[in-house]
Amino acid sequence: MPRGIVTEGSRDQSLGRAKKLSGKVEVQACRFQAETCPAPECNLSVKDVKLFLHETKRYMKLFKGAFQRVEQIEKSLIYVQGLLGNATRKNVEQMALGQKEKVRSLQYFVAQSQWETEPVLAIHQGLIGETLGEEDGVMLVDESSTVKQGTESVGVAAQYCGSVGKIANGQVGVYVGYASRTGYSLIEGRLFLPEKWLEEEQAEQRQACGVPEDRVFKTKPEIGLELLKNALQRDNLPFSWVAADALYGDSPAFRDGVAATGKWYFTAIKENTLIWCTPPKVHVPPWSGHGRHPTRLRLSDPRKHPVPVKDLVKKIQKQDWVRAVIKEGSKGPIVCDFAFLRVTESRSGLPAGELWLIIRRNLEDPTEIKYYFSNAPLSMPLQEFVRISGMRWPIESIFEESKGEIGMDHYEMRSWIGWHHHMLLVSLAHHFLVRLRIQFQDQAPALTIYQIRLLLCSVLPSFVSDIQSALERVAYYQQRNFIAYRSHRKKKLAQFELFTRNLAL
After folding, report:
1. Based on the number of CB atoms within 10 Å of its own CB, is 39 exposed (0-12), middle (13-18) or buried (19 or more)?
2. For the whole model, what pTM was predicted?
């Protein structure tokens, strides 16, 4: 087997009495048992469901201190109720009309009003800590995209959009979420600006979209690390781990930045990432007597090349794989084989320090193999790596629920401030559903986010509740369409006039 592989037994020998002194009881990963999901039942009463509307208003009052004006508090409630409601398309127009509110007023609140997001974020993150917080909680970093038409929206460009699995015209945001044994929720998002958006030629468009003048280009890992540091500065949400996919795991700067905060990272890496199973010796070559004195380290034995992590899989013996249950899924337990190794990372052809390499092999499809780096200490129980390997999935659930239930990708604002206001209010709406699920879990332990929102919609303002509401909606649409028609017609006539003048010349 590779020299760097670690089992509970081999580590016990190297740590000696350290395990006994830690006070933790080691459990063989192959004996892990996933809890059985509770039998479906819902003992909620009509009275309980009627409380949901009151809980919505009570929840939004918690953010009262973050807004400077009374109307901002009122509009935030209207917007969040719209996101949680049953409108098919959750843009400002539909959410406002569904609650008999003025469209322009709600549009101004989310897309133009200069209310600060940080005070809201501080309260929001603290509430997540109250609802889900655990000392060994996990911060989740990932990006999500929205395909867009046209070129006027802030940050839109031809770029890879994971939502469609290819390069498309769209916007990409970097997000930080949180997960614990109790649940998961979204904290914050930051819009990614492609490099071309920060070129001098785009200055007019940046100004039109309200992009801050001091904005400079940052990669997605740089944005993710900045969001993590912001969360740490708020100091109201406990966590020990940071989990992310290979986009972030393949960034040494991101991993080093996480480590510098005192947190442990568990990040996916590509299969061609280079490592040594045994740390190679390095030296500074002696001066040849000519030119400058050497200062850069070199491998003492140039023949000891690093190897891709994928090459280790075939060298791991059958008995060194640990079969473990990651979690209980919707179709039963999710079981994978694991191998845990201590390796030395290669950076620019030189050793960069020892860390954990975790290899996870799918039981149903052994060709599906994932690789992870972690800076956790040598004494870290292997069971914890198994747990954390399943804690990255919640960020995908957050995106799926937020897009499918709360209208995360339904926005039609083009401005920088509008995008960030919308995403923050989506985060609040999602966490409210999580809080409701936990609040009523004794009566209904198997409730999902979808089911909670279904019940909530029964007490929220209806999309069209009666004939008069329908007539008012039709009148609004006709007036809106007519105003748009006159505007477009005026522009077209002006174009025709200019065209005629050019012909005359």
Report:
1. exposed
2. 0.87
Give the pLDDT confidence of 157-205 residue by residue, as tens digits.
999 998 888 999 999 999 999 999 999 999 999 999 999 999 999 999 9
Beta strands in 348-450 (DSSP E): 350-362, 369-374
Strands (DSSP E) contained in 23-105 are: none
For residue 24, is pLDDT > 90? no
Furthest-apart CA atoms within the chain: distance in Å: 96
Residue 31's beta-bridge partner residues?
none
Whether residue 314 contacts residue 304, with contact meaning beta carbons closer than 8 Å, is answered with: no
The confidence band for 486, taking pLDDT boundaries of 50, 70 and 90, is: confident
CB atoms < 10 A from the CB of 486, how many?
10
Q: Is-contact 328 260, C-beta < 8 A?
A: no
C-alpha 443: how far from its chain's center?
A: 30
The 10 Å CB-count burial string (b at 16+, else e) for 368-394 is ebbbbbbbbeeebbbbbbbbbbbbbbb
pLDDT computed for residue 25 by the predictor: 32
CA triple 33-34-39, angle to 5 deg: 130
Burial 191-213 (b: 16+ CB within 10 A, else e): bbbbeebeeeebeeebeebbbee
Name residue, tokens 């539909």: 94
pLDDT per position as a tens digit, 425-440: 999 999 999 999 999 9
The residues near 115 (Cβ < 8 Å, ≥ 6 apart) are: 67, 68, 69, 72, 421
